[in-house]
Q: What sequence folds into this?
C-alpha cells in the first residue's frame, strides 16, 4: 500500500458539475410526465445527462462554503484517462493503461483519492460560464444555452491517492500527465479543467 500526495493546479478555468436545484431531474421530468406513477419511468428513459442540462451547474460546497471536488470525480477522471490512453497503447507502443484488464474495477477497488471532499483554493471568486450546446437531432440542429459556475485558472487543490497495489503507480502518473490535455469537470472538450500536478511528499 502506498500514498501519493499531490498538488493539482488548474491551467484553465474549472466548471462546476452539480445541478443547482437538488431536484432538477425530478422537477423537469415531472413537468413532462402525465402522472406521478410515470415519473420514475420517464427519468429512466431520458437519462440523467439530458435532464442535467436544464439548469445551471454549480460547485458542491463543504460545511464552510468552500467549493470542492468529490473523491469520486478524481476516480472518474482516472477512468476516462485510462480508457483513452489504452487506445493509444493498443494502436502503437504499449503503455501502462493498455496493460490493465477490467480497468474500471481496478480503479474502483484499488485506488482511493482522499479526502472525500477536496477543497478548491482559488485566486479569484466564483464566476459564471455561459456556452451554447449544439446537437443534431431528427428535427434538425438544436441549440441551447448552458450555464456553469467557474473557478479561474490558477485554482489548486491538495489530494492524496491511496494505492493498494503499488504496480498501479506508473499508470496513475500516466493518467495525471493526461490531465494537461483533458481535464476534470464540465466542457472538458474545450480545454476546461486541464491541470498540472506536483508530488508534495
A:
Amino acid at each position: 500500500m502506498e500514498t501519493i500526495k499531490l498538488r493539482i493546479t488548474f491551467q484553465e478555468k474549472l466548471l462546476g458539475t452539480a445541478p443547482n436545484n437538488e431536484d432538477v431531474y425530478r422537477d423537469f421530468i415531472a413537468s413532462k410526465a402525465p402522472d406521478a406513477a410515470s415519473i420514475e419511468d420517464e427519468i429512466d428513459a431520458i437519462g440523467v445527462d439530458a435532464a442535467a442540462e436544464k439548469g445551471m451547474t454549480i460547485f458542491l460546497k463543504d460545511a464552510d462554503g468552500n467549493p470542492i471536488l468529490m473523491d469520486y470525480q478524481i476516480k472518474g477522471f482516472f477512468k476516462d484517462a485510462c480508457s483513452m490512453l489504452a487506445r493509444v497503447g493498443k494502436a502503437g507502443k504499449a503503455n501502462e493503461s493498455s496493460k490493465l484488464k477490467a480497468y474500471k474495477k481496478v480503479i474502483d477497488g484499488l485506488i482511493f483519492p482522499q479526502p472525500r471532499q477536496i477543497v478548491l483554493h482559488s485566486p479569484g471568486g466564483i464566476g459564471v460560464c455561459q456556452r451554447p450546446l449544439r446537437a443534431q437531432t431528427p428535427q434538425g440542429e438544436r441549440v441551447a444555452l448552458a450555464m456553469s459556475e467557474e473557478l479561474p485558472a490558477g485554482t489548486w487543490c491538495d489530494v492524496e491517492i491511496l494505492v493498494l497495489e503499488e504496480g498501479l503507480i506508473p499508470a496513475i502518473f500516466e493518467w495525471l500527465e493526461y490531465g494537461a490535455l483533458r481535464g476534470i469537470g464540465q466542457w472538458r472538450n474545450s480545454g476546461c479543467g486541464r491541470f498540472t500536478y506536483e508530488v508534495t511528499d
Q: What stands out?
A: Residues 45-53 have pLDDT under 50 and may be disordered. The chain has two domains: 2-20+57-199, 21-54. The domain at 2-20+57-199 is CATH 3.30.70 (Alpha-Beta Plaits). The longest strand covers residues 140-151.
